[in-house]
Amino acid sequence: MGTDARLAAVELCDVKFGWRNSSAPLLSIPEMRFEQGEKVFLAGPSGYGKSTLLGLMSGVLLPQEGTIRVLGKGWGEMSASQRDRYRADHLGVIFQMFNLVPYLSALENVLLPLKFSKLRAARLLDPEEQARELLGRLGIGSDLLGRPAGELSVGEQQRTAAVRALLGQPEVLIADEPTSALDADNRDAFLELLIAEVELSGATLIFVSHDGSLASRFDRVVQLADFRTVAR
Ligand SMILES: Nc1ncnc2c1ncn2[C@@H]1O[C@H](COP(=O)(O)OP(=O)(O)OP(=O)(O)O)[C@@H](O)[C@H]1O
Ligand SMILES: [Mg+2]
Predict the structure, then answer these.
(1) What Cα–Cα distance (Å) separates residue 57 from each residue in 90, 174, 222?
(2) Ligand 1, residues 19, 26, 94, 179: which to mutate, most atoms within 8 A of Cβ?
(3) Using an 8 Å Cβ cutoff, are 114 and 86 in contact?
(4) Atom 12 (ligand 1) nearest CA
(5) Exposed/middle/buried for residue 181 (C-beta within 10 Å: 0-12, 13-18, 19+)
(6) Angstrom distance (rounded) from CA 73 to CA 9
(7) 73-74 vs 65-70, strand pairing mode
(8) Among the atoms of ligand 1, which is closest to the Cα of residue 177?
(9) Cβ atoms within 10 A of the Cβ of 80, count?
(10) Number of the ligand closest to the Cα of 60
(11) Which atom belonging to ligand 1 lies closest to the Cα atom of 54?
(12) Average pLDDT over residues 188-195
Protein backbone atom coordinates (compact mmCIF):
# COMPACT_ATOMS: atom_id res chain seq x y z
CA MET A 1 0.00 0.00 0.00
CA GLY A 2 3.07 2.20 0.17
CA THR A 3 2.28 3.60 3.61
CA ASP A 4 4.79 3.55 6.46
CA ALA A 5 3.69 0.54 8.54
CA ARG A 6 4.74 2.21 11.80
CA LEU A 7 2.20 4.95 11.33
CA ALA A 8 -1.04 4.34 13.18
CA ALA A 9 -4.08 3.97 10.94
CA VAL A 10 -5.96 6.26 13.34
CA GLU A 11 -4.53 7.95 16.41
CA LEU A 12 -6.22 10.21 18.96
CA CYS A 13 -4.25 12.28 21.50
CA ASP A 14 -5.73 14.28 24.38
CA VAL A 15 -9.06 14.60 22.60
CA LYS A 16 -12.01 16.32 24.22
CA PHE A 17 -15.30 16.69 22.43
CA GLY A 18 -18.65 18.05 23.57
CA TRP A 19 -21.65 18.89 21.43
CA ARG A 20 -21.96 22.15 23.37
CA ASN A 21 -18.83 24.05 24.33
CA SER A 22 -20.26 25.01 27.70
CA SER A 23 -21.04 21.58 29.16
CA ALA A 24 -18.65 18.82 30.24
CA PRO A 25 -17.27 16.99 27.20
CA LEU A 26 -19.07 13.87 26.04
CA LEU A 27 -15.77 12.18 25.19
CA SER A 28 -12.38 12.55 26.79
CA ILE A 29 -9.71 10.38 25.21
CA PRO A 30 -6.12 10.76 26.43
CA GLU A 31 -4.87 8.24 23.89
CA MET A 32 -6.42 5.77 21.45
CA ARG A 33 -4.55 4.07 18.63
CA PHE A 34 -5.61 1.76 15.83
CA GLU A 35 -2.78 -0.02 14.04
CA GLN A 36 -2.73 -0.63 10.30
CA GLY A 37 -4.43 -3.91 9.47
CA GLU A 38 -6.15 -4.19 12.84
CA LYS A 39 -9.80 -5.21 13.15
CA VAL A 40 -11.35 -3.52 16.18
CA PHE A 41 -14.83 -3.85 17.67
CA LEU A 42 -16.02 -0.62 19.31
CA ALA A 43 -18.63 -1.35 21.95
CA GLY A 44 -20.83 0.87 24.09
CA PRO A 45 -24.47 1.43 25.03
CA SER A 46 -26.75 3.68 23.01
CA GLY A 47 -26.02 7.37 23.47
CA TYR A 48 -22.48 6.83 24.74
CA GLY A 49 -20.91 8.56 21.74
CA LYS A 50 -19.95 5.77 19.32
CA SER A 51 -21.21 7.60 16.22
CA THR A 52 -19.73 10.83 17.58
CA LEU A 53 -16.33 9.14 17.90
CA LEU A 54 -16.55 7.78 14.35
CA GLY A 55 -17.42 11.32 13.17
CA LEU A 56 -14.25 12.59 14.88
CA MET A 57 -12.11 9.81 13.39
CA SER A 58 -13.40 10.51 9.90
CA GLY A 59 -12.86 14.27 10.18
CA VAL A 60 -16.55 15.11 9.89
CA LEU A 61 -16.42 16.54 13.43
CA LEU A 62 -13.45 18.39 14.93
CA PRO A 63 -12.67 18.19 18.65
CA GLN A 64 -12.46 21.24 20.92
CA GLU A 65 -9.09 19.95 22.13
CA GLY A 66 -6.50 17.43 21.00
CA THR A 67 -5.43 15.88 17.71
CA ILE A 68 -6.75 13.07 15.55
CA ARG A 69 -4.51 11.70 12.82
CA VAL A 70 -5.29 9.26 10.04
CA LEU A 71 -2.14 7.69 8.55
CA GLY A 72 -0.06 10.43 10.15
CA LYS A 73 -2.04 13.43 8.95
CA GLY A 74 -4.11 15.47 11.40
CA TRP A 75 -7.63 16.60 10.46
CA GLY A 76 -6.95 19.92 12.20
CA GLU A 77 -4.09 20.68 9.76
CA MET A 78 -6.45 20.56 6.77
CA SER A 79 -9.02 22.94 5.30
CA ALA A 80 -12.59 21.65 4.91
CA SER A 81 -12.05 20.81 1.23
CA GLN A 82 -8.73 19.10 2.00
CA ARG A 83 -10.53 17.00 4.61
CA ASP A 84 -13.16 15.98 2.06
CA ARG A 85 -10.46 14.94 -0.39
CA TYR A 86 -8.39 13.11 2.24
CA ARG A 87 -11.50 11.26 3.48
CA ALA A 88 -12.42 10.20 -0.07
CA ASP A 89 -8.87 8.96 -0.70
CA HIS A 90 -8.25 7.01 2.49
CA LEU A 91 -11.48 6.20 4.33
CA GLY A 92 -14.48 4.05 3.58
CA VAL A 93 -17.34 4.95 5.89
CA ILE A 94 -20.56 2.99 6.38
CA PHE A 95 -22.82 5.47 8.18
CA GLN A 96 -25.49 4.40 10.65
CA MET A 97 -28.07 6.11 8.40
CA PHE A 98 -26.33 4.87 5.19
CA ASN A 99 -26.32 8.33 3.49
CA LEU A 100 -27.13 6.87 0.09
CA VAL A 101 -28.32 9.34 -2.54
CA PRO A 102 -31.96 8.20 -2.85
CA TYR A 103 -32.55 9.10 -6.51
CA LEU A 104 -29.33 7.47 -7.77
CA SER A 105 -29.31 3.74 -8.46
CA ALA A 106 -27.53 1.27 -6.19
CA LEU A 107 -24.75 0.96 -8.77
CA GLU A 108 -24.39 4.75 -9.17
CA ASN A 109 -24.22 5.16 -5.37
CA VAL A 110 -21.47 2.56 -5.13
CA LEU A 111 -19.40 4.22 -7.87
CA LEU A 112 -19.80 7.75 -6.40
CA PRO A 113 -16.68 7.85 -4.15
CA LEU A 114 -14.48 7.03 -7.14
CA LYS A 115 -15.57 10.34 -8.69
CA PHE A 116 -14.07 12.14 -5.67
CA SER A 117 -10.90 10.06 -5.45
CA LYS A 118 -8.64 9.36 -8.41
CA LEU A 119 -6.47 7.39 -5.99
CA ARG A 120 -9.23 4.89 -5.26
CA ALA A 121 -10.43 4.74 -8.87
CA ALA A 122 -6.88 3.99 -10.01
CA ARG A 123 -6.80 0.83 -7.88
CA LEU A 124 -9.54 -0.76 -9.98
CA LEU A 125 -9.11 -2.10 -13.50
CA ASP A 126 -12.85 -2.07 -14.17
CA PRO A 127 -14.74 -0.24 -11.38
CA GLU A 128 -18.20 -1.08 -12.67
CA GLU A 129 -17.43 -4.77 -13.02
CA GLN A 130 -15.89 -4.83 -9.53
CA ALA A 131 -18.91 -2.98 -8.11
CA ARG A 132 -21.33 -5.47 -9.70
CA GLU A 133 -19.30 -8.38 -8.40
CA LEU A 134 -19.18 -7.10 -4.79
CA LEU A 135 -22.87 -6.14 -4.84
CA GLY A 136 -23.73 -9.59 -6.22
CA ARG A 137 -21.80 -11.26 -3.41
CA LEU A 138 -24.00 -9.36 -0.94
CA GLY A 139 -27.19 -10.37 -2.71
CA ILE A 140 -27.78 -7.15 -4.69
CA GLY A 141 -28.25 -8.81 -8.07
CA SER A 142 -28.71 -7.29 -11.51
CA ASP A 143 -32.45 -6.85 -10.89
CA LEU A 144 -31.75 -4.40 -8.03
CA LEU A 145 -28.64 -2.61 -9.35
CA GLY A 146 -30.49 -0.06 -11.44
CA ARG A 147 -33.18 0.79 -8.89
CA PRO A 148 -33.09 4.14 -7.09
CA ALA A 149 -31.56 3.51 -3.66
CA GLY A 150 -34.63 5.06 -2.02
CA GLU A 151 -36.72 2.15 -3.31
CA LEU A 152 -34.49 -0.52 -1.79
CA SER A 153 -35.28 -2.22 1.51
CA VAL A 154 -33.34 -1.03 4.56
CA GLY A 155 -31.18 -4.16 4.53
CA GLU A 156 -30.45 -3.74 0.82
CA GLN A 157 -29.48 -0.11 1.39
CA GLN A 158 -27.16 -1.15 4.20
CA ARG A 159 -25.40 -3.69 1.98
CA THR A 160 -25.14 -1.15 -0.85
CA ALA A 161 -23.56 1.35 1.57
CA ALA A 162 -21.03 -1.31 2.57
CA VAL A 163 -19.97 -1.95 -1.02
CA ARG A 164 -19.64 1.81 -1.58
CA ALA A 165 -17.26 1.99 1.40
CA LEU A 166 -15.19 -1.01 0.29
CA LEU A 167 -14.75 -0.20 -3.40
CA GLY A 168 -11.24 1.01 -4.27
CA GLN A 169 -9.70 -0.45 -1.11
CA PRO A 170 -9.41 2.55 1.24
CA GLU A 171 -6.82 1.99 4.00
CA VAL A 172 -9.30 2.58 6.82
CA LEU A 173 -12.83 1.25 6.95
CA ILE A 174 -15.22 2.69 9.52
CA ALA A 175 -18.55 0.93 10.00
CA ASP A 176 -21.33 2.26 12.24
CA GLU A 177 -23.84 -0.50 13.15
CA PRO A 178 -23.61 -1.95 9.64
CA THR A 179 -25.47 -5.15 10.50
CA SER A 180 -28.38 -3.69 12.47
CA ALA A 181 -30.91 -3.99 9.63
CA LEU A 182 -29.84 -7.44 8.45
CA ASP A 183 -31.31 -10.83 9.30
CA ALA A 184 -28.98 -13.50 10.70
CA ASP A 185 -28.07 -15.04 7.31
CA ASN A 186 -27.41 -11.70 5.65
CA ARG A 187 -25.52 -10.49 8.71
CA ASP A 188 -23.15 -13.46 8.58
CA ALA A 189 -22.61 -13.12 4.81
CA PHE A 190 -22.02 -9.40 5.26
CA LEU A 191 -19.45 -9.86 8.01
CA GLU A 192 -17.67 -12.62 6.07
CA LEU A 193 -17.34 -10.35 3.06
CA LEU A 194 -16.28 -7.31 5.09
CA ILE A 195 -13.58 -9.25 6.92
CA ALA A 196 -12.39 -11.05 3.76
CA GLU A 197 -12.11 -7.72 1.91
CA VAL A 198 -10.18 -5.93 4.67
CA GLU A 199 -7.84 -8.90 5.09
CA LEU A 200 -7.23 -8.96 1.34
CA SER A 201 -6.39 -5.25 1.17
CA GLY A 202 -4.67 -5.04 4.59
CA ALA A 203 -7.10 -2.30 5.62
CA THR A 204 -7.91 -1.33 9.20
CA LEU A 205 -11.48 -2.03 10.26
CA ILE A 206 -13.18 -0.07 13.04
CA PHE A 207 -16.59 -1.60 13.59
CA VAL A 208 -19.35 -0.36 15.90
CA SER A 209 -22.17 -2.68 16.87
CA HIS A 210 -24.63 -3.37 19.66
CA ASP A 211 -24.37 -7.05 18.81
CA GLY A 212 -21.69 -8.31 21.18
CA SER A 213 -21.92 -11.79 19.65
CA LEU A 214 -19.92 -10.44 16.69
CA ALA A 215 -16.97 -9.30 18.83
CA SER A 216 -15.14 -12.63 18.66
CA ARG A 217 -14.45 -12.03 14.96
CA PHE A 218 -12.23 -9.05 15.79
CA ASP A 219 -8.64 -8.67 17.05
CA ARG A 220 -9.63 -6.41 19.92
CA VAL A 221 -12.57 -4.74 21.68
CA VAL A 222 -12.55 -1.09 22.77
CA GLN A 223 -15.16 -0.14 25.37
CA LEU A 224 -16.38 3.40 24.89
CA ALA A 225 -17.64 3.57 28.46
CA ASP A 226 -13.99 3.97 29.51
CA PHE A 227 -13.79 7.31 27.68
CA ARG A 228 -17.05 8.95 28.71
CA THR A 229 -16.82 11.83 31.10
CA VAL A 230 -20.51 12.54 31.55
CA ALA A 231 -22.11 10.51 34.33
CA ARG A 232 -25.22 8.54 33.39
N1 LIG B 1 -25.87 16.53 16.23
C2 LIG B 1 -25.95 16.46 17.57
N3 LIG B 1 -26.15 17.56 18.31
C4 LIG B 1 -26.21 17.52 19.66
N5 LIG B 1 -26.06 16.37 20.38
C6 LIG B 1 -25.84 15.25 19.70
C7 LIG B 1 -25.78 15.22 18.26
N8 LIG B 1 -25.53 13.94 17.86
C9 LIG B 1 -25.49 13.22 19.00
N10 LIG B 1 -25.66 13.98 20.10
C11 LIG B 1 -25.65 13.52 21.48
O12 LIG B 1 -24.42 12.91 21.78
C13 LIG B 1 -24.61 11.72 22.55
C14 LIG B 1 -23.96 10.55 21.84
O15 LIG B 1 -24.61 10.31 20.61
P16 LIG B 1 -24.10 9.21 19.58
O17 LIG B 1 -24.99 9.28 18.40
O18 LIG B 1 -22.64 9.44 19.34
O19 LIG B 1 -24.30 7.88 20.41
P20 LIG B 1 -24.17 6.34 19.98
O21 LIG B 1 -23.30 5.68 20.98
O22 LIG B 1 -23.75 6.28 18.55
O23 LIG B 1 -25.66 5.82 20.15
P24 LIG B 1 -26.46 4.67 19.31
O25 LIG B 1 -25.92 3.36 19.79
O26 LIG B 1 -27.88 4.88 19.72
O27 LIG B 1 -26.22 4.91 17.86
C28 LIG B 1 -26.10 11.56 22.74
O29 LIG B 1 -26.43 12.01 24.04
C30 LIG B 1 -26.70 12.45 21.68
O31 LIG B 1 -27.92 13.02 22.11
MG1 LIG C 1 -24.68 5.60 16.83
Answers:
(1) 12, 9, 14
(2) 19
(3) no
(4) 49
(5) middle
(6) 10
(7) antiparallel
(8) 27
(9) 9
(10) 1
(11) 18
(12) 88
Please give the backbone phi and psi of residue 212, each rounded to the nearest 5 degrees, phi first. -60, -20
For residue 56, CA distances in Å to 29, 42, 60, 75, 105 come to 12, 14, 6, 9, 29
Instruction: State how far the Cα of 88 lies from the Cα of 90, in Å rounded to an integer.
Output: 6
**What does pTM read for this prediction?**
0.90
Report the pLDDT value the prediction gives residue 148, as an integer from 0 to 100: 95
How much is the pLDDT for 187?
Answer: 87
Residue 225: DSSP 8-state = G
Contact indicator for 207, 221 with CB cutoff of 8 Å:
no
116, 87 in Cβ contact below 8 A? no
Give the span between the Cα atoms of 213 and 182, in whole angstroms: 14
Residue 143 phi/psi, 5° resolution? -70, -25
Cα separation, 158 vs 60, in Å, equals 20
For residue 47, which ligand has an atom nearest its CA?
A: 1
Helix (H, G, I), strand (E, B) or coil at 173: strand
The domains of the chain, with CATH numbers, are 10-227 (3.40.50.300)
CA 27 to chain centroid? 19
How confident is the model over 52-97, as pLDDT tens digits? 999 999 999 999 999 999 999 999 999 999 999 999 999 999 987 7
